[in-house]
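Mods, move this if it's the wrong board.
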Amino acid sequence: MDKREGNGIPQSLQQHLHQLGEQFAERLRQELPQLAQQAQQLPEASDEQRRQLLRALRDQLHRLAGSAGTFGFDTLGQQARELEQQAELWLERQLRQQQDLDAFIAALQQLGSQSAGTTSQGEPYRVLIVDDDLDLASRYSLVLRGAGMLVEVLRDPAQIFEHLRDFNPEVMLLDVNMPDCTGPELAQIIRCNDDWLRIPIIYLSAETDIAKQMSALIKAGDDFVTKPISDNALVAAVFSRAQRARLLSDALSRDSLTGLLKHGDIKEQVAIELERALRSGARASVVMLDIDHFKRVNDEHGHAAGDNVIRALANLLRQRLRRVDSLGRYGGEEFLAVLPDCTPQQARMILDEIRERFAELRFIADGGEFSCSLSAGIAGTDVHSNAEQLRERADKALYAAKHGGRNQVQIADD
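Not the wrong board. Structure tokens:
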């Protein structure tokens, strides 16, 4: 039997996971500098050499993107995925603007300079266990918590929707045989609710009959785990499902052009941050931004050039805003940002710097250069405005900036 630490977590599980993480970190310490070295070869390479280098980089980035998140390097994995996609675009289109190549090289070199010793798992995965066997459910809970996940245990299926709403799990572990409601029956009830259609459901059962397992999966469910299950196998099964669920949820909530939150999701963040600000007593700021004379860009330089302008502003905002800030594409050339713990005056200083940097960017289209400017409106949270009123106040401040001559930032009246 495994020895246990004072917190009840098997030492063998901790040691094995730690060993795997250390092995992967050592691999990163070797591979990341190689990426940076390959990036340095791109500017001087001939066309054919460049194609070969990009193919090699694409394949290496693909492997890195697939494995980094599994070992807790979520940010690194996402960066590798984005760079892999850029490399693929380069291979599909033989000719790219030199400024795009320079940006790609710089991003690769920045990735290669990162330390492999720092993990970034983001928020822990949330797992809901529904099982009438409290002892067994408690063991599963301890194992998954030992792997860094947040876990809730539910014995009474009648309370399922209350727990789903309050805990918002990313994976469910569901016992097949429970006294008042079987696992497949409960899974079917859950699937009838549109809010929980995408949540992965993993059945737990001692049933080894394949026909009965398939019958349960056909009714509703995504995976079938046979009891008894080793701690490592349990962690692997839940981790892989939770990771895919989060990636899918993130992809569905992201704008395809910019990678920012979509309209509905960024509006939801306004409500969340307003509630948090009212609870804590700290002020937050909501910002509406719009690219000036954007229709002229599309008319004179084409929609491809317009897309490049939108992407450039999205990237600039991502670079200049904090990780705690929320940022979304509200529609067309309009963006919405939410800045917690930030007064309107502080937000104005930040946005003015972004506005100046954006105006300095030069875009190339049809052999010529052009630049753009932006306008922004800011509204601060208060006890009198709800989320929609807050956004409307920021929008009115944006309207005032537009009519005041554009290329400026205005704060809404309190």
